[in-house]
Amino acid sequence: MSELKVGLIGNGSISESHLQAYLSNPKAELVAVCDLKEDRARETAAKYNIPHVYTDYRELLANPEVQAVSICTWNNSHAEISIAALQAGKDVLCEKPLCKTVEEALRIEQAVRETGKLLQVGYVRRHASNIAVLKKFIDAGDLGEIYFAKASLVRRLGNPGGWFADKERSGGGPLIDIGVHVIDLCWYLMGKPKVKSVSGNTYNKLGNRSHIENYDFYKAADYDASFNTVEDMANALIRFENGASLLVDVSFSLHARQNSAQINIYGDKGGAEIEPALAIVTERHNTIINIDPQISSPGFEFQGSFDREINHFVDSCLGLHETNCPVEDGVEMIKILNAIYESAATGREIQF
Ligand SMILES: NC(=O)c1ccc[n+]([C@@H]2O[C@H](COP(=O)([O-])OP(=O)(O)OC[C@H]3O[C@@H](n4cnc5c(N)ncnc54)[C@H](O)[C@@H]3O)[C@@H](O)[C@H]2O)c1
Questions:
Q1: pLDDT band at 243 (very low <50, low <70, confident <90, very high)
Q2: CATH number of the domain located at residue range(s) 126-301+332-351 in this protein
């Protein structure tokens, strides 16, 4: 007998990782799936023996059997569906980003408060096993006060197209799509300091580079090279009230020699590299020490992190602990991302 009955809303690419995680969690049972594309939802239901299929999320939410939902739809529907789900008495795991605008984020937060239901933001990188390891070092004070973080996710050719390239549905390009992951991760590891100001730049210089030949890259199912309204790349400096700062750059298109991922945090007693593999740096007896933690997954392991994220969500729904990715952390990130876009548009630093 499962303890938590779950519905999936939005049955595209990333939903497969949610499905696999629920399927391997003995406390959870998938009872409903919904997608605008009926064939897609029906195929999933048949494959995984899920009894209820919907094309309208409201009908899924009206099913009293469903206790919790994963929302894996385009970003422009996260707010509407999250609020409706909370009001229908369901606990919610909402994929990142929480939503598009600060106004939407505040409405979601209010719905959480009014309904008393749970909303966990899909910050999957917080659930990576190397982050659990690093967090123990940070919490024990081994890095001291973390005052600087640097995050960079560069795709030289990697605009997925489809809704990702449509600002109306996505809210933006690489900043809101992949920047959200690394800004959140650094902010979380820094101890969630209060933001003081944000300064950012966005560029639309290369477009989606759809003319490039002989180079494969990930494309959304509804890829259309003729349509792209999002930035190619973004960079930002985020200052915190405690004096710490975070420097970030992310791209879908850039004349970079290779794709790269770097996430580093620096404290007054030690530092850490998180991508591509966890490494810790400190000093002992007047000597610099590089520490290479001997762990099975030193880097970000995709499905394993989704498994841990969803196990954490299920246990949060069952009241076994509080979620470590609460709605407030989604709201704060939407404020930061929107401030970066505003700073880029106005050419000014935005004060919080
Ligand atoms: N955590 C991660 O690492 C990660 C990775 C990829 C995507 N995502 C997030 O997951 C979400 C989905 O991304 P994706 O890559 O799966 O996109 P996708 O285009 O592959 O799938 C989205 C699906 O949602 C459906 N959909 C859209 N609006 C709907 C609605 N109102 N009701 C029902 N179904 C609806 C679409 O028909 C489509 O099947 C996005 O918010 C994205 O940011 C997170």
A1: very high
A2: 3.30.360.10
